[in-house]
Amino acid sequence: MSRRTVNALNAAAVGPYSHATWAGDLLFCSGQTPLDPGTGKLVDGNVADQIRQCFDNQFQVLEAAGLGSDDVVSVNVYLTDMGDFGQMNEIYATRFSSPYPARTTIGCASLPLGARIEIGLTAKRQS
Protein backbone atom coordinates (compact mmCIF):
# COMPACT_ATOMS: atom_id res chain seq x y z
CA MET A 1 0.00 0.00 0.00
CA SER A 2 1.39 3.40 -0.89
CA ARG A 3 0.76 6.30 1.44
CA ARG A 4 -1.61 9.03 0.33
CA THR A 5 -0.30 12.14 2.03
CA VAL A 6 -1.32 15.77 2.26
CA ASN A 7 1.04 18.71 2.58
CA ALA A 8 -0.23 22.27 2.87
CA LEU A 9 1.70 25.15 1.36
CA ASN A 10 0.67 27.44 4.23
CA ALA A 11 1.80 25.21 7.10
CA ALA A 12 5.40 24.62 8.14
CA ALA A 13 7.07 21.31 8.95
CA VAL A 14 10.16 20.92 11.12
CA GLY A 15 11.11 17.38 10.26
CA PRO A 16 10.78 14.47 7.86
CA TYR A 17 7.02 13.97 8.02
CA SER A 18 3.88 14.69 6.04
CA HIS A 19 1.28 17.11 7.34
CA ALA A 20 -1.33 14.36 7.07
CA THR A 21 -1.88 10.83 5.80
CA TRP A 22 -5.10 9.27 4.52
CA ALA A 23 -6.21 5.85 5.77
CA GLY A 24 -9.42 5.12 3.90
CA ASP A 25 -11.81 7.99 4.73
CA LEU A 26 -9.80 9.03 7.79
CA LEU A 27 -7.21 11.80 7.65
CA PHE A 28 -4.57 11.60 10.39
CA CYS A 29 -2.96 15.02 10.79
CA SER A 30 0.48 15.43 12.30
CA GLY A 31 0.76 17.73 15.28
CA GLN A 32 1.17 21.37 14.41
CA THR A 33 3.18 23.75 16.54
CA PRO A 34 2.65 27.52 16.28
CA LEU A 35 5.07 28.06 13.42
CA ASP A 36 4.56 31.02 11.14
CA PRO A 37 4.53 29.42 7.67
CA GLY A 38 6.16 32.50 6.18
CA THR A 39 9.19 32.50 8.45
CA GLY A 40 9.28 28.90 9.75
CA LYS A 41 9.74 30.33 13.26
CA LEU A 42 7.48 30.31 16.32
CA VAL A 43 4.98 33.16 16.29
CA ASP A 44 5.82 36.05 18.56
CA GLY A 45 3.28 36.74 21.25
CA ASN A 46 1.43 35.12 24.08
CA VAL A 47 -0.01 31.64 24.37
CA ALA A 48 -3.31 32.76 22.78
CA ASP A 49 -1.37 33.77 19.65
CA GLN A 50 0.35 30.37 19.65
CA ILE A 51 -2.97 28.55 20.05
CA ARG A 52 -4.53 30.47 17.15
CA GLN A 53 -1.52 29.74 14.92
CA CYS A 54 -1.72 26.00 15.67
CA PHE A 55 -5.36 25.98 14.59
CA ASP A 56 -4.59 28.12 11.53
CA ASN A 57 -1.91 25.63 10.51
CA GLN A 58 -4.18 22.62 11.06
CA PHE A 59 -7.03 24.21 9.12
CA GLN A 60 -4.63 24.84 6.22
CA VAL A 61 -3.88 21.12 6.20
CA LEU A 62 -7.59 20.28 6.29
CA GLU A 63 -8.24 22.67 3.42
CA ALA A 64 -5.43 21.11 1.37
CA ALA A 65 -7.20 17.76 1.89
CA GLY A 66 -10.57 19.19 0.86
CA LEU A 67 -11.94 19.06 4.42
CA GLY A 68 -12.99 21.57 7.06
CA SER A 69 -13.52 21.90 10.79
CA ASP A 70 -16.88 20.10 10.64
CA ASP A 71 -15.03 16.99 9.41
CA VAL A 72 -12.81 16.79 12.52
CA VAL A 73 -13.66 13.85 14.78
CA SER A 74 -10.83 13.95 17.33
CA VAL A 75 -8.31 16.52 18.60
CA ASN A 76 -5.18 16.00 20.71
CA VAL A 77 -3.81 19.06 22.51
CA TYR A 78 -0.41 19.16 24.22
CA LEU A 79 0.34 22.03 26.61
CA THR A 80 3.60 22.73 28.42
CA ASP A 81 1.62 24.62 31.07
CA MET A 82 -1.82 23.34 32.09
CA GLY A 83 -2.44 26.88 33.36
CA ASP A 84 -3.03 27.69 29.66
CA PHE A 85 -5.96 25.26 29.50
CA GLY A 86 -8.62 27.96 29.97
CA GLN A 87 -7.32 30.08 27.10
CA MET A 88 -7.00 27.03 24.88
CA ASN A 89 -10.55 25.99 25.74
CA GLU A 90 -11.94 29.46 24.87
CA ILE A 91 -10.19 29.57 21.50
CA TYR A 92 -11.06 25.92 20.79
CA ALA A 93 -14.75 26.77 21.23
CA THR A 94 -14.47 29.43 18.49
CA ARG A 95 -12.88 27.02 15.98
CA PHE A 96 -15.46 24.23 16.23
CA SER A 97 -19.21 24.10 16.58
CA SER A 98 -21.44 21.80 18.57
CA PRO A 99 -21.41 18.86 18.60
CA TYR A 100 -17.70 19.24 19.28
CA PRO A 101 -15.04 16.70 18.27
CA ALA A 102 -13.68 14.32 20.89
CA ARG A 103 -10.64 15.80 22.59
CA THR A 104 -7.68 14.85 24.76
CA THR A 105 -5.54 17.48 26.48
CA ILE A 106 -2.18 16.45 27.88
CA GLY A 107 0.34 18.39 29.94
CA CYS A 108 3.91 17.75 28.80
CA ALA A 109 7.37 18.89 29.81
CA SER A 110 8.43 20.42 26.50
CA LEU A 111 7.60 20.69 22.80
CA PRO A 112 9.72 21.24 19.67
CA LEU A 113 11.38 24.64 19.28
CA GLY A 114 10.11 25.79 22.68
CA ALA A 115 6.44 25.89 21.65
CA ARG A 116 3.87 26.12 24.44
CA ILE A 117 1.25 24.13 22.52
CA GLU A 118 0.94 21.48 19.81
CA ILE A 119 -2.32 20.31 18.26
CA GLY A 120 -2.96 17.14 16.27
CA LEU A 121 -6.26 15.95 14.87
CA THR A 122 -8.13 13.28 12.95
CA ALA A 123 -10.82 14.07 10.38
CA LYS A 124 -13.19 11.95 8.33
CA ARG A 125 -14.27 12.52 4.76
CA GLN A 126 -18.06 12.57 4.65
CA SER A 127 -19.55 9.97 2.31
From TrEMBL:
<protein>
    <submittedName>
        <fullName>RidA family protein</fullName>
    </submittedName>
</protein>
<dbReference type="InterPro" id="IPR006056">
    <property type="entry name" value="RidA"/>
</dbReference>
<comment type="similarity">
    <text>Belongs to the RutC family.</text>
</comment>
<dbReference type="InterPro" id="IPR006175">
    <property type="entry name" value="YjgF/YER057c/UK114"/>
</dbReference>
<dbReference type="InterPro" id="IPR035959">
    <property type="entry name" value="RutC-like_sf"/>
</dbReference>
<dbReference type="Pfam" id="PF01042">
    <property type="entry name" value="Ribonuc_L-PSP"/>
</dbReference>
